[in-house]
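Sequence design from tokenized structure. All designs in this work follow the same two-part layout: the structure record, then the generated sequence. An example of the structure record is given first.
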């Protein structure tokens, strides 16, 4: 009998079946393998399946045989185990710099590294949450461009935006391009940052990668390398970024309009805001009230004040007085 053109793909189809339909709790019998191959227009006999499995085992695949009634084979180990992929899913879901759309795409690709049965377990872990996510779909392009600039030792240029009181993107410098020397990419406080040398101001600066638009490489060699010879990224991050946690509460802040970007960066674009006279707005926030939260508020000085609830306002007053008393002594 003439063999079909797919006959040469026999081993690949067996590998495919083992990856997709087997794990420690699910095996496939020789009969099921033959049936699967027939669906692919590949003919096979029982003895040839035994030989094929032996070849794959010799190649290094961890294929085990089930000795109980019914028998069968399953793939005992993979490049990634289920607990490892669950950790990766958690990382993807909690990353603010990865958009919702890209998060779903990445998790879908991770599911293909498991059997269809374990993939269901992984999918059950995927929970729709209100975690704040970036809206910039070009985040991967931005990261790749920055790494290319670092690898090729050249400067990069890009536009940079900020949020307005109407939650619209507004280009800084009236749309003029920034041109900096990229040196470090860091993931801090749930965001991706570029740390670069800005020759124009002779300073080391950081930029949110998801707020960068139209990045491109220049032909100019990077400058400022001596500034990074003994650069301590951990110390820089601790000095520049912050986190806070504590008892959750709903707090209303009265802020100067210039603070809208700060509020959106911290609490996301869905934060509830409304205008409050000329030059101010009110923000309704769900926050963890703690000394760290008060520290964040105090860092904004007189541009932000707590309006409600009264007990949080009083607690903030007490916090400030406790600091004042230390210095008064």
């Amino acid at each position: 009998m003439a063999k079909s053109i797919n006959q040469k793909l026999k081993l690949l189809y067996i590998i495919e079946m083992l990856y997709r339909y087997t794990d420690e709790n699910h095996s496939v019998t020789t009969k099921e393998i033959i049936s699967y191959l027939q669906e692919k227009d590949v003919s096979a006999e029982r003895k040839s399946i035994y030989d094929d499995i032996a070849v794959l085992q010799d190649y290094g695949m961890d294929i085990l045989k089930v000795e109980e009634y019914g028998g069968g084979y399953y793939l005992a180990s993979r490049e990634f185990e289920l607990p490892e992929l669950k950790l990766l899913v958690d990382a993807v879901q909690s990353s603010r710099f990865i958009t919702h759309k890209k998060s779903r795409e990445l998790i879908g690709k991770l599911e293909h590294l498991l059997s269809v049965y374990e993939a269901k377990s992984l999918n059950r872990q995927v929970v729709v949450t209100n975690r704040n996510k970036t809206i910039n779909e070009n985040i991967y392009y931005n990261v790749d461009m920055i790494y290319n600039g670092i690898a090729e030792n050249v400067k990069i240029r890009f536009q940079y935006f900020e949020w307005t009181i109407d939650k619209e993107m507004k280009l800084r410098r009236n749309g003029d391009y920034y041109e900096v020397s990229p040196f470090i990419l860091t993931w801090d406080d749930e965001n991706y940052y570029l740390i670069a040398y800005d020759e124009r101001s002779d300073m080391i600066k950081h930029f949110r990668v998801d707020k960068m638009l139209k990045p491109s490489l220049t032909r100019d060699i990077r400058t400022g390398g001596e500034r990074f010879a003994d650069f301590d990224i951990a110390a820089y991050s601790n000095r520049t970024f912050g986190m806070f946690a504590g008892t959750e509460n709903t707090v209303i802040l009265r802020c100067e309009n210039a603070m809208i970007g700060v509020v959106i960066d911290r609490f996301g674009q869905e934060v509830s805001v409304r205008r409050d006279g000329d030059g101010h707005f009110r923000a309704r926030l769900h926050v963890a009230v703690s000394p760290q939260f008060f520290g964040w508020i105090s860092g904004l000085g007189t541009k932000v004040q707590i309006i409600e609830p009264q007990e949080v306002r009083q607690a903030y007053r007490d916090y400030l007085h406790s600091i004042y008393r230390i210095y008064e002594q």
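Residues 27 and 288 are 48 Å apart (CA to CA). We note this feature because it recurs in several other targets discussed in the main text.
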